[in-house]
Amino acid sequence: MSKIETHSLSAGYGKKIVVENAEIEIKSGEIVSLIGANGSGKSTILKTIAGQLEAVSGTVYIDGRDISKMSESEISVKLSIMTTEKVRAELMTCKDVVESGRYPYTGRLGILSQRDRDIVRETFRLVDGVELVNQDFNRISDGQRQKIMLARAICQEPDILVLDEPTSYLDMKHKLELLKILRKLVREKNTAVIMSMHELDLALKISDRMICVKNNFIDRTGTPEEIFSEGYISELFGVDTLCYNEFFGTPELEKISGEPEIFVIGGMGKGIPVYRRLERMGVPFVVGVLHENDIDFPVAKALSCKVISEKAFEPVSAERVRQAEKVLQKCRKLICCVEKFGSMNSLNRELLEFAKQKEIEIEHLLVGGSAPHTPRQRGKPPLETRD
Amino acid sequence: MQRCVKCFLLLSVLLVVLTAVNLMFGSVSYSLSELFGILSHGNGTDSMVILKIRLPRTLAVILLGGALSLSGLLLQNFFANPIAGPFVLGISSGAKFAVSIAMTVSLSVGTAISSSGLVITAFIGSLAAMGTVLAISGRVKRMSVLIVAGVMNGYICSALTELVISFADDSDIVNLHGWSVGTFSGTDMDEVKIMAVVVIPALLLTFMLSKPMGAYQLGEAYASNMGVNIKKFRAELIVLSSLLSACVTAFAGPVSFVGSAVPHMVRGMLGTSKPIIIIPASFLGGAVFCLFCDLMARVLFAPSELGISTITAIFGAPVVVTIMLRRGDRQL
């Protein structure tokens, strides 16, 4: 059953419409993330769904009931929120904050019952924050604070959880922890979760469905696989298509254009750090011959001027090598990142021979294994900078 | 929990001790046994001094001190600002201005305005001043701006009050002037009754608001998500805080810094900001603080008496400055 539904919802402030004609549906037990550029209206949608902001037009339904006809206390037992607003809680322990989530269930004076206390204790365990119980809310880290605010929201025993950028400003450990808690919650309590997110890589992994907001409209809705395809993400955020790696959900910096100066033989991920380093130094480069299913391929494609590639699972053909030689001829240097050639890329060895003949400088660069702690102390960097 | 019990015990003991001391000392002093004697079967001038002058005054100090502190607590909750208070925000001065007009007009006509009439007038003045502060806080979200606006608001109202007083008859000026700087002197039992009728129900109503106040401490969005009807709740806060500070101003004139300083001291003492604990503690704390300050005002330079605000400012203002300094790094 759908927990939240909107019918031709226009959300905004006063008369100013931020998002128009939104049709959103969220079911129990699913995590739906809202993605889109800054200022596209994600928070506005969330505020309207949570009943904090009156809809400009259209309707929000919670369990089939029109939210504008529900009182605050009726909403409070169905839906809880976590905002980006910084909470100033003077002299409050984490327990005080989490306990406040029980307010909708307490009497006139807000005194907690034994059951309320049990739920609070259980929630602390769920978010793995038992050691924070008696600590001052103002004296814990941002990550811990976010965890406590999530615990507060969970304590409210909502059917629907509305989270505005829950993972922003958190370090990796806390981001993962928070998402783990959400997964657990959805699995155990069948909660419906809707949240806005900027970390696409994480959204891709946690979401059952995604809603994309662009230019005042909901542009697309679908599973992560549907959204992260055909260069849609790049389009959504208005960045160069090649910059965005849809498999990993990660962006790459913009490529260096110009006449290639360096030829890189990569493969098996060994080339990736080299491509990145060249990109940082601003040196245009070519990569070849690389299989299209090589893990290097998307990065090479995004950062190099040109990738001379071979079809997946086919041995590197002589034709491709000749093509590569033509380009290599004009380069001042060849970097080989591969230690051994196998049967599929054995012809790449010919490129090394070719460079030797033409007296092109060759560098064998095996990056990987344990990285030095402070690369600067290694003396000369392995690659010359451009003169 | 234990700390809580200890604090309430301490405050109660202080309340009893200071009440006794306030009754005992003054231009004529009595020993504790004499005091009991007078209270149980008093006669003559001694019982006049205690029952007609000191007892009403002491009761007024307790009620109004508690009311001021409570009013400050409500305003702090409303504005999410730890140093808000009826005096700092100019709400006392607004009430003062309204009362001064009412007094001058009624004196010039020749009829004395009744105590309850004064409270109502002061309430209207408080609401008007509150409206000004709200209009400013709606435009500017910075907390320090709110305080500056409140202080300016207070100055304007005080200046207007001075202006009104200068139009009053000579014989009334002394009376009005003494009142406009704040004093508890000259309270009689009938006035105490009216204070009690206003302050005690307001205290109970405030206590009933402790749940939404607790939710509101996390911010408006969370409070509304917890089921608080924000508009209604904010209106309740405004009415209660204005009523409490109006009652104080109507009877004692503007009393400075109690509303800002006492709730803060009480929070620090109890180590919590849970309204259900802080509301009664603030009331007790305000009563104790004002009993102490009124005692100082009366006995320091006896037989001449100091204005109550002189003493409350000496003890209250440093507390406010401390809060501002401590919160300097977190955008006040």
Structural summary, described in words:
The complex is a heterodimer of chains A (387) and B (332). By secondary structure, chain A is an alpha/beta fold. Helices cover 30% and strands 23% of the residues of chain A. In chain A, the strands form 4 sheets. Chain A has a 6-stranded mixed beta sheet, sandwiched between helices. In chain A, strands 1, 2, 3, 5 and 6 form a 5-stranded antiparallel beta sheet that branches. Chain A is elongated, with a radius of gyration of 27 Å. Mean pLDDT of chain A is 88; it is low at 369-380. In chain B, helix 3 packs antiparallel against helix 11 (230-252), helix 3 crosses helix 13 and helix 5 crosses helix 11. In chain B, 79% of the residues lie in helices and 0% in strands. The relative contact order of chain B is 0.17. Chain B has 332 residues and is an all-alpha fold. The mean pLDDT of chain B is 87. The A-B interface holds A 47, 50-52, 71-73, 75-77, 79-81, 83, 85, 87-92, 96-97, 100-101, 103-104, 106, 108-111, 152, 156 and B 80, 82, 207-208, 210-211, 214-215, 217-219, 221-222, 224-230, 267-268, 271-274, 276, 330.
